[in-house]
Amino acid sequence: MKNIFINDFRDTDFKSMFQTYFTELGVSVRNWDRLFKAMNDENRNFAYLRYDEESNPIGFIQFTVITFSSGFFGTKMGFIREFWVNSNCRSNGHGSELLQLAEEYFIKNAVHKAILTTNTAEKFYIKHGYTKDVTIKAKNNFDVFIKVLR
């Protein structure tokens, strides 16, 4: 397996994987170029792309570091933004390994909590140490999961 770290979302492989992912979700996008440009313009998104031995795409995990703050407290968290594994490659450990890569990135960058939303993979995240946090509301109305990273 080969994992490639990117922060340029004009990468043709990323774009292809992302479009497949959104198609599977039933999400239509009018202007793909504008979407990928917006990801780049934020200048704080990262991803790992995963390939098999023949350089066929297996999946990706896209993430960023965000800061929650109030007038008194602030905390950095690693945010898993998007996550996809090719349906032909699921249940083979690829998702677990991609998630681990993102978590390792967070830890190396002094970020010790990860947050994400999901409406499809609750059991997967619980298996990997995430817990549902009903005190946080997401704009997409999906369940919010948090993990303290060591």
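(the above was protein one; protein two follows)
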Amino acid sequence: MKIAQLFPKKTKIICTIGPASQSPEVLESMILKGMNIARINFAHGDFDGHRQVIANIRAAAQAVGRRVAIFGDLPGPKMRIGMIANEPIFLERGQSFILQTEKIIGDQQRVSMSFKELSSVVEPGDSIFLNDGYIHLRVDEVKKSEVHCRVKVGGELRSRKGINLPDVDLGISAFTERDKRFLQFAAEQRLDGVSQSFVECAEDIKAVRAAAMSFNYDPFIIAKIERSRALNNLKSILESVDGIMVARGDLGVEIPIERIAKTQKRIISEANMLGVPVITATHMLESMIDNQRPTRAEATDVANAILDGTDCVMLSGETAIGQYPEEAVSVMARIAQETESDAGSMGVADLLQVRQARGEITKEDLISFNIFQSAQTLKPAIVFVPSASGATALRVTRFRLPQWIVAVSLNEKTCQKLQFAYGVYPEFVTSNPLSWPHYAQSWLYQHELESDLVLVIEGAGTVKAGDTTRVDIIDLA
């Protein structure tokens, strides 16, 4: 089958699996329409339910003959208010309102909250946001277990809504004991990756990795950037993770809304430079929860994320609880395919040229830069990258080549992790190809590609990690 039929777009699509999409029939359809990665949200459901969903995803992928990666989303220290009597209540601008750590049934004057340390981490003048940022409180006074606030922006409030504390040091790790139980379940289920919510620093990721090692588990670890404090530590976070997510829901509350677009561009750009796969998430096709077509603004948002250099775009409620999960995947795939036809991310190439002129370029970056320049000049049909760890494929795909990068690997785990990378087609093999010209010719024939030229990025004919030193131009004519 032609590779264009197998995967008509290079941007990877992540779908959150929920009640609307967990049946084998819907999963098979979503995979065929463009789903590459499934997300299991551990904030909802139980282990028995997750276990069945994971089995359904794997069975659906096998049934349609497509590779699908699965990752679990660790919820982190999500802070929520408690139950409210006679809800909803409406908070008026200027009224007083109390948040307390002692458990009560809330009313118009006060509510309880799950974060017991609240009174010890906030002080007068701090801002507190409720209900995805729609309600804004200003701290007036802190009294033992009570935080007395003034409503700056009012609105409707219901039980269990979230709380955001921008620029406040919570004094706790993003990786909680509850997350550790979810991580152990992910290890038992052999999930390909996990994402950690509310990351603030590299130490949060190191805690996840250390816990994973204790379970003899090596997942693809994704840092969700949704706290303002994480932006100050972005470089060290990027250096500690396997992937990163621009989680615009909570991030859009933590920083001023007018900064979201440029912050998204900055995160994507810095991730691209380091060869770290990046996911853009939240509200991408939100209106498709209830409608068969997205808004024009949503379609533009998806396209702009791809033009910015994102590797993956993610659907949340659209596929988890929406009425049209299959249509949402199909629409996102069509937007990606159309956008990629005109995309050409040169930002990384430009920056590497500057570094090369200064003599600051690393050996690994120089190799990937030369591969990019060779592909630009020779226009091969395919770039084959033998991959033990996948590192070279990730460095090459930063340049957004028009060609597919076929990452040939003896390691099935590497193939699954490369599902998160733009334009990379992981190909598992059980033994090293004895002849790359023969392998390339066979692969092109199998995928109905007519071309006489391919590139093979190899290290003396092996797929050994760290041994990639040569660009072979193979003329099959």
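Reviewer note on protein two: The chain has a mean pLDDT of 92.
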